[in-house]
Amino acid sequence: MIAGKTITVNEEGYLTNFAQWDKEVGEALAAEANIALSPRHWEVITYLQNEHKNDVALSIRRIGKSGLVDIKEFYVLFPNAPLKTATKIAGIPKPASCI
Amino acid sequence: MKRLIILGAGTAGTMMANHLQHELDLNEWEIQIIDERVEHHYQPGYLFLPFDIYQPEDIIKSIAEFIPKGVSLLTAKINKIDAPNNQVVLENGEQLHYDLLIIATGAKIAPEEVEGMKGSEWHKSVFDFYTFEGSLALRNKLREWQGGKLLVHITEMPIKCPVAPLEFSFLADSYFKHKKMRDKVEITYVTPLSGAFTKPKATEALEHLLHEKDIHIESDFAIAEVDNENKKIIDYGGRAISFDLLVTIPTNKGDELMARSGLGDDLNYVPTNKATLQSQQYPNIFVLGDASNIPASKAGSVAHFEAEILTENILRFMNGEPLKEEFDGHANCFIETGNGKALLIDFNYTHEPVEGAFPFPGIGPLRLLKESRINHMGKLAFRWIYWNMLLKGTHIPFVSATMQESGKKFD
Lengths: 99, 411
Prior knowledge:
The structure holds 2 protein chains of 2 kinds.
Chain A: H1 23-32, H2 39-53, H3 60-64, H4 71-77, H5 82-89
Helix pairs in contact in A: 1-5
Chain B: E1 2-7, H1 11-23, E2 29-35, E3 39-41, H2 56-59, E4 60-62, E5 71-75, E6 78-82, E7 87-90, E8 95-97, E9 100-103, E10 107-109, E11 126-127, H3 132-144, E12 148-154, H4 164-178, E13 185-190, H5 200-212, E14 215-218, E15 223-227, E16 232-235, E17 240-242, E18 245-249, E19 252-254, H6 256-261, E20 285-287, H7 300-318, E21 331-338, E22 341-347, E23 356-360, E24 364-368, H8 373-390
């Protein structure tokens, strides 16, 4: 249960069904990660969701070269493990770093 | 006469030359393989050079020795692949037309991608072991080094031989114990991943070993720069780790040829269909080994499994038949754990490494995800298998190209 809605997550807390995501779910997930979402955060989240929809493999390097945000800012927006954190809030799977 | 060109005569290219020489009608097809080098290095040997376990002559042979009669070997530098016109342009300007192209140009380290990595401390206290020169320089350093903080570091994924940094850490632990100076060395494994490995069961097994050998882990570290003056690595979040000796795996990129030819992604890897190994851009281009962008490990064993499936698909393509979507990302890797033991992992796109017996269910003799001396012997024997069977395209008995589920303990 989050933000008054029922969501299904995997053992690491990532949504397993993107259809269950909405902005309120995103806000609640961000709150769990101690992040207050600004419009800038939402720009990045939307970007990640679009990349995921287009089956693009996400990586810190790619985000840094996206033209939307550079790596330093990405770390400021989502401290510590930005890719893991941002994807969780965005309701998309944790990027699979291939073995 | 139609022409098939293979770019790159490393592990993958050489295997394909042998497979295709065997399968194609050489009255109909001319097979040419191009590489700018003359030496063929057994790359897994680079791990052992720094510790004086192998000597340089153990791992170097000539490329020519492994190219079969019937395949012409051209030693030349390639300027560009002109894919729309089906030709390869050499540095000397010569244009070679092809009917079918196989890209097997591999991956290399690119330390210049990280600020300061190739700075004043490069090959003084900052080393790689992914090149011959790097591992020799590191060997010379380790022979004299009196101890301090050793970092074994991974810049970003993907890297070739993803287990090598762990192996290096384990071997370093044994090396210093053997030299009776382990207490003078603090070893830390620094990774951009969230753990020692990417999949849960293997991560647990490997982190257990790291802990047992008193090797610390710093995870989620995305390096931004190497501070040569103060001997620190600093990540994008501002986290800094100091070192006396930094052994780093820099960014791995595909050959610059892909950038010049407009065929690669932002790391110069060629977009490839992960099940058929056909280029996603040009139907008459196929990609094998480290050069592709498929989400399988970059490892010799993967190229070996791919080669068997790619050969079949090339024949189908030549006959106008639909390609088989068969490659499952199968990889099989030995992980040296020191003290005469090793682990073996066997996995693919959909199945993480798990415990079990390999290749015979229940019997083995190799144990999956568990240390054993037989595994270590397997790793060492592998060098013979590489030179005498793998490169020649010989099928390894009882080991199928796609991963076998039998003999494995899945939940």
